[in-house]
Amino acid sequence: MKTTRLMAWLLFLSGALIYVIGLWRACPLLSGKGYFLGVLMTGMFVTYAYQRAENLNQNDEHFASVCQMVALITIGLLLVGVWNTPLAPIEMGLYPAAFFVCLAGKIMLMRPLKE
DSSP 3-state assignment of 92? Predict the structure, then answer.
C-alpha cells in the first residue's frame, strides 16, 4: 500500500505544481492567476467533500448530484479560461491534463486503506 500512497502523492503534487506554476507564468494579469487558482481550489474542494461523504457513508443522491454539477461547472470554467488565455497550443492541453492528474491524485489519497 505504500507504493499506492506514494503514487497518489506524486500524481497530486506533480499535477498541482505543473498547473499552478505553468499558469502563473502564462497569465499576465493577477486576476487571471486568481481565476485559475480558484478553479483548482473549487475542484479540490468538491473532490474532498464527495470522497469524505462517501467514506463516512453519508452520501445521498442530492449531495452527489450537487457535487457533479459543481464539478462540471468547474471543468467548464477551466476550459473557458484556458481557451481565452494567450497560450501555445501544447499548453492548452497541458494545463487541463495537469488539473485532471491533480484530481486523480486527490481521489486516490482520499480512498480508505484496505489492509
Answer: helix
Largest CA distance in the chain: 48
Pairwise CA distance, residues 36 & 57, whole Å: 32
Length of the chain in terms of residues written: 115
Q: How far is CA 36 from CA 2, 50, 54, 90, 114, in A?
A: 32, 21, 27, 18, 35
pLDDT tens sequence across 22-58: 888 888 888 888 999 999 999 999 999 999 888 888 8
Say if residues 79 and 51 touch (Cβ distance below 8 Å). no
Query: What's the confidence (pLDDT) of residue 25?
Result: 87
The model carries a pTM of 0.87
Element (H, E) at 57: none
Q: Which residue has the cell 473532490?
A: 47
- For 113, the 3-state DSSP assignment is coil
